[in-house]
Amino acid sequence: MDTDIEALVQRAQNKDREAFGELFDLYYDKVLKYVFRRVLSAEYAKDITSNTFLKVLKNLDQFEWRNGPFSFSGWIFKIATNEVNQYFRKQNRYKLIIDDPDFKELGDNNKEAEEIERKIDNDKHLLILNKAIKQLKPIYQDILHLKYFEEMSYEEISQVLNKNESTVRVYSKRAKEELRIILEADASKFLENI
Amino acid sequence: MTIEELFKKANNERIELDGHKERLKAVLLKNEYFDVAEEKEYWDWKLTVSSLAFSALIIIFSYSIPSVGNNTVAVEKTGLYTSLEKSNNVTSLGQDSYNGAGANVLKMVEDGTETLMYFNDRNVLIHSEVNNK
Fold this sequence. Notes:
A: 2 domains, 10 helices, B: rod-shaped
């Protein structure tokens, strides 16, 4: 599987459309879900995911396979995480960088996005967690999402965040402790009723 | 409930956004990133053909020019042997040896000077000696 991905990456770097299409199919759902869980907005999730993949494409020539099996997915999630953090910094000033009129026009007609957001409004677990996580430091937010939603190993997270693995372990422990304190303070009643 | 359990309970639905995946894929695949490849491929093809054609020309040139030259020399040399042999002041001395190899020898007498000319088996002049009488 990793060899397949490595081969696909090499072909995509040689400008093979089909290979890039396969890589896109492999990672799109994962990236969209990760981004959506972090921003809880269908519209922004689309824009951030679109920008992430455009940046993947634009920087593909610079990518080097050197960190083992998680190399490429780690790199994509690094770009996605940077985009998410940029969104948090810019909020409603975050813009789609794809300059294609057809793509933008079609994106405006979006009943399904509203439906997804409506469903999320009913997902109290996600809302409580999200609200609590947002009170943490940005690096703790990244680690909790990657560790518990994306179920990444500490090794993978260290690659995504460009941090030492032992640092990630320490941060993860602290993030979890701080999250528990926030949840106990803000949502104790909710947790009791689950 | 642990934090891990809470994370597991939170939204694990598959998210699909009105054909966003297909549209994004289509936009990405028509990105100029891939055009560079086509352009490169085109130039590679052109360069390959032109360099092959150039190489072929060089090869033809390098073979044809020296061979024409050799022929000319050979013709000249053959012509020299034949024309000398037919001259009145030249006599054939037949086979002799020069530097351990067989040679046809012609003797030309002119104005009291005797010149011995040694030709190899292709009638190319390989040596000459002038003896004053």
